[in-house]
Amino acid sequence: MKRNKTAALVLAGVGVFGAAGLATSFANGAQAYGTIEAAAASTAQDRGTVAGSGWGRGNGGNGNSGNGGQGRGADRGGYDSSAGGYGRGSGQANHDTGIPAAVPGAQISAEVEAQLVFMVEEEKLARDIYALAMDDFPDARVFSNINRAESAHMAQVQTLLERYKVADPTVGLASGVFADDTLQELYDSLSSEVEKGWGEAVQAGVAVEVEDIGDLKVALKLAAPSDVTTVLENLLAGSQRHLAAFQRSGGTV
Known about the structure:
Helix content is 47%, strand content 7%. By secondary structure, it is mostly helical. It starts with a helix and ends in a 5-residue tail after the last helix.
């Protein structure tokens, strides 16, 4: 699976961006403002307190989005905190971190196993790239929001690997380090783009999501147990939302 050509084509769009657009959201009637992107809240599994995590005005209870319950942005209720965090507003949203139940007696083919092994590293790549961008652009919530989502995606694939007794290639690897040579090469290329500036960082995000979407579509063509298919579908929907968020921030495909 070669990703360099696609990534290079996507990165060729650098330079056409302006500053990041500010997204305006409403948290249950309380006006919120900031760069919070509702679409950046990834899949139904990791939406979290989307409505309540913008900078807004209003009152609310405590956020408890990290455990699948109701999350309320409060006087600083947060995305993944039971009380603190960031985001003022009275918005409310659900965050379901649950993985589909195991299918009794199910097994996966060698082809599906290879896709999951690759996918967990690809989700790690996305997480690590957005972590770099967060350091360079700490006020750009599009990167911090999607970074958290990618961590959740990675955890979901890791659950499947453990469930089907497949070795996790990410165990013990530091940020920016990959067992797959192609992903290592892609990370090295994209990380250098992130360091160039805002437009390049957003375009790197576009490249990551375009690659992820393509690979997930390939993986979904394989016959697999329903729990695997459900996770892959959720990841695909999340990546499509992430891509839309980067496009709203100036990225182009």
